[in-house]
Amino acid sequence: MPFIENVSYTDLERLALERLIPALLSHGFCYVDGLLGDLAGSAVLDQVVEMHRSGQLQDGRLAGSIPGVSRKSIRGDQIAWVSGAERGCEAISFLLNLIDRLISVCASRLGDKEIRERSKAMVACYPGNGTGYVKHVDNPNRDGRRLTCIYYLNKNWNPKEHGGVLRIFPEGKSYVADIKPLFDRLLIFWSDRRNPHEVQPSYSTRYAITVWYFDSEERAQAKKRFRDLTGNNSLPLMLFVKLVPKIIVLSSNIHLVQLLFCLFCS
């Protein structure tokens, strides 16, 4: 995308050292506005809107795009998983590369955990019919997800009229944090039990792109636990698809489905 100027390592390091790392370590979350600027941010938005318009977004599953596992009482978004290499995702690819670079600057300064890889990007739309996503933790059972990064794409968003606020309930804190899903805003928070959160009902079309960065050691241990549990080195996808509806009959098993998807399908 030739119209986008390269962001220097110095700029990313300054942003990380002065704002993101201190906020993550003290509050457990942080955000930055104006990440890409209007031109590049609008290019990302255009591509996401086109994905939505062309029917590429499907009802959100509890554990990713697994057929037959939609639970709209829990989450009401429509999603697609992309790597950024797909045709028509050039601006999304630029965004993902920039977030990768930013996280690489932060990673070595956030403790002794090794962050080497991330999930594909989850492109999500809440269609504005009053749906949201109930209070949950992204990584409640040590599946490897270390950091959650959400990039918002909503121009002229008015939370009082449109809703859609992401509310974080920081562990051990006496306050909640309400994050407005404003255009060109990047939100980063710990994926584990430190940050239960919810998406409040949205009354206007709400777009976001989410990626998760993995703690390499924890992810490897989670894969090993599952292999030990099943007695197999891998779980065939079709068997997984057949098992999922049975696993989620009880809501208490939702996190197990999340773990399965995170380990084998992301």
List the helices and strands and how they pair.
Elements: H1 9-27, E1 29-33, H2 38-53, E2 58-59, E3 78-82, H3 90-107, E4 115-118, E5 121-126, E6 133-136, E7 145-152, H4 159-162, E8 166-168, E9 177-179, E10 185-190, E11 197-199, E12 206-215, H5 216-230, H6 237-247, H7 254-264
Antiparallel strand pairs: 1-10, 2-3, 3-5, 4-12, 5-12, 6-11, 7-10, 7-12, 8-9, 8-11
Helix pairs in contact: 1-3, 2-3, 6-7
Tell me which CATH architecture applies here.
Sandwich
Separation of termini?
27 Å
Average pLDDT: 84
CATH fold naming: Jelly Rolls
Point out poorly predicted stretches.
Answer: 62-70, 237-255
Number of helices: 7
SSE pattern: HEHEEHEEEEHEEEEEHHH
Based on Cα principal axes, name the global outline: globular
CATH class: Mainly Beta
Secondary structure: number of strands: 12
Oligomerization category of the chains in this entry: single chain
Count of separate structural domains = 1
CATH superfamily: q2cbj1_9rhob like domain
Major β-sheet annotation: 8 strands, antiparallel
Into which percentage range does the β-strand content fall?
Answer: 15-25%
The assigned structural class equals alpha+beta
What Rg is obtained from the alpha carbons, in whole angstroms? 18 Å
User: What is the helix fraction of residues, given as a range?
Assistant: 25-40%
Organism: Poecilia reticulata (Guppy)
Keywords: Dioxygenase, Iron, Metal-binding, Nucleus, Oxidoreductase, Vitamin C
Catalytic activity: L-prolyl-[hypoxia-inducible factor alpha subunit] + 2-oxoglutarate + O2 = trans-4-hydroxy-L-prolyl-[hypoxia-inducible factor alpha subunit] + succinate + CO2
Pfam families: 2OG-FeII_Oxy_3
